[in-house]
Amino acid sequence: MFRMYLAAVFLLLSHWAQAQDHIEGVIVDADNGMPLPGANVYIEEIEKGTVADREGQFSLEGLNKENYTLRVTFVGYQTHRLTVPVSSGKSLLIRLIPQTLTTEEFIVTGTRASATTPTTFQMIDKEALSKNNLGQDLPLLLNYTPSIVTHSDAGAGVGYTGLRIRGTDQTRINVTVNGIPLNDAESHGVFWVNMPDFASSVENIQIQRGVGTSTNGAATFGASLNIQTDTKKEEAYAETDHSFGSFNTRKHTVKAGSGLINDRWAVDARLSRISSDGYIDRAFSDLKSYFVSGGYFGDDHVFKVNVFSGSEQTYQAWNGVPENLLKSNRTYNGYTYENETDNYQQDHYQFIYAGNWGSNMKANFALHYTQGQGYYEQFRPDDNLPDNYGIEPISIGNELINSTDIIRRRWLDNDFYGAVFSLNYVSTDGKLDAIVGGGANRYDGDHFGEIIWMGVTGGTNIRDRYYDNVAVKDDRNLYLKTTYEVQDRLYLFADLQWRNIYYRFNGINSDLRDISGSQDYNFFNPKLGISYETGNGKTLYASYAVANREPVRADFTDSPLTEIPRPEKLNNVEAGLRVNKTRYQYSANLYYMGYKDQLVLTGQLNDVGAYIRENVASSYRAGIELDAAVVVAPRWTLGGNIALSRNKIDSFTEYNDVYDENWGFAGQESTTYSDTDIAFSPGLVSSAIIDFRPLENMEISLLNKYVGRQYLDNTQKEDRSLDPFWTTDLRLSYNWSPGWVRELNFSLKVNNVFNELYEPNGYTFSYFVPNEGANGRELVTENYYYPMAGTNFLGGVSIRF
After folding, report:
1. Which family does it belong to (predicted)?
2. What is the CATH number of domain 103-229?
3. Helix or strand or coil: residue 643?
4. 36 strand-pairing partners
5. pLDDT in tens, 521-561
6. DSSP, res 56
């Protein structure tokens, strides 16, 4: 009886579902019939919409009129409007026509890989970013892409965060925004804390692993991130996003746009604020940002202005947690001074032109200017005045005071400006696709320090600078990229880049040394490859690329000019397969990255007592990366990736300080190691994601991440390493279109569900001290770690009007 009753209930539900009026269909490219996942379908009469799934399919239910007007949009395609009857019993086939003018997309084409480019890359779209965008910085939003390991100083993903790709850190990962360099010209790093909530203004990101294609700015020495900001929206919109979570984390975002005005003009704006107390004690963050974009969108030409800014105040958690406190006090912060903070603001201005110059030529030009200014403040107990600040001992009565408590600020005031361009020619028969591009950029940075308070004051004033130096760096490059179809679906690729760097610096460094000097570099970076499209959604590719990279600021300032390290060189081979089918996709690639003169810290001191980086003659990274996603059932999708690698230095010499019985410095001792792992380069990194849609507008995802052992230095000693870890996150989202607003989205993300205690980042140093043992001394190793939070959550609501 129970089974009969249950069957009857399902039968009634089935009839009820069939009785609901609905519209369904599939959206494809008009030229090749490929589905367009992510295309937007909107019913204008009732302001209700949906998004096409991975197969381009959509369904709108609960309709009660006979006819509705659908508006179908997708980036890079013409808007399509049609009036359709409800419950016609037929599935619609909607063919979108590619726009003749794709100028906004061309803004980033010059520095991106295309479907036929023989290199390893992955696209991350706005939808994928928004699923996790609840307040954490951009690196954490990319955590589940192949070969990536992320970390956070404060342990909660807000504030100072970073990522490594294939074991290479942020200083070796080239980042551009609309083709404009973002890496700091001197350190080569990217400080995401200066760009809070930037992901809310990003249209898509292309991640290229390996050398990739030629780009502007710092050399790609492991990967590149090519970011395109929001493109124009045809319809006016407004939305507000609010999220709250553990450690008093809050994010508030307001966005609005005019849509196209007179089919030509559009303005978009965003205002954001993010705050968090951090997982680590006192490691708070107070972050503010805005993004404004406006432009003219003609039939053949686009003129666009982007202005965006970020300001941050973060309490310093740079020192990490010492190993002896890791189990008893994971949130330890050695800083206690209330204003031990980093304070910085960075303003970006971009003027961009893109257009069609006839039927075969497209052009892109951009002018840019970035102004940054800020300081970090430090309390220094009993600091030595003559040695560290050049201040003569202070005489009080008969006493000479050489040291006292001070509060200092170390400032950076810099300007970065220049121009980038690209010209794209496509032959009439479509066989030749050539891009000529490049850029010229200048960095002008002023580094100086001030003492703003002293326990005992002498003849100094609050704005006196105890060090002051100026650096100017010119970076120019030209490249030529060509793809030629030698026969049906067989493509040859060549990419030749010349890059010149002229770096000069003048003044007194923070250690009171005169660092005046200059360096000039010329690099040639060729790339060659071949790709073949089989015609059934498969692409085979192979490439060889060369990259050269100049030393960073610290290599110049910490070394006498006669001992500056040599530039690094990378030879990169990539070979792989990409497959895109309606219900599944996967990629597999092999890579080899051979380094000559890679720069690493060895512990060695120069003649002025500063730790310097040394060139390692030969080292390499080699591995295989697999990435796949499959729709196993209408409501279930499985995805994941795995990267297996071997990362080795042929010969590495470590230098350790030696102290005598009075703890005086007595020199250094060296130890040579062979065939050791490169620091922070795990042999295994993998992710697995399970997506389940119990309802059409509800998604539940289980996200898993595994990172193998990472060594803190290049000695491959297990007592100087980060333990492997496996984390699991749970993500839930629910979309609702109530009618009085266009859409409500509720989301919840539970990070580290199983409360894994792990540390993805740290540092180490060792030294010899006297000991009564046989050797009369012992080696002491000190490890410091940056722990991540245990189980924590972020929940949010987005309202779109």
Report:
1. Belongs to the TonB-dependent receptor family.
2. 2.170.130.10
3. strand
4. none
5. 999 999 999 999 887 778 999 999 999 999 999 888 887 65
6. S
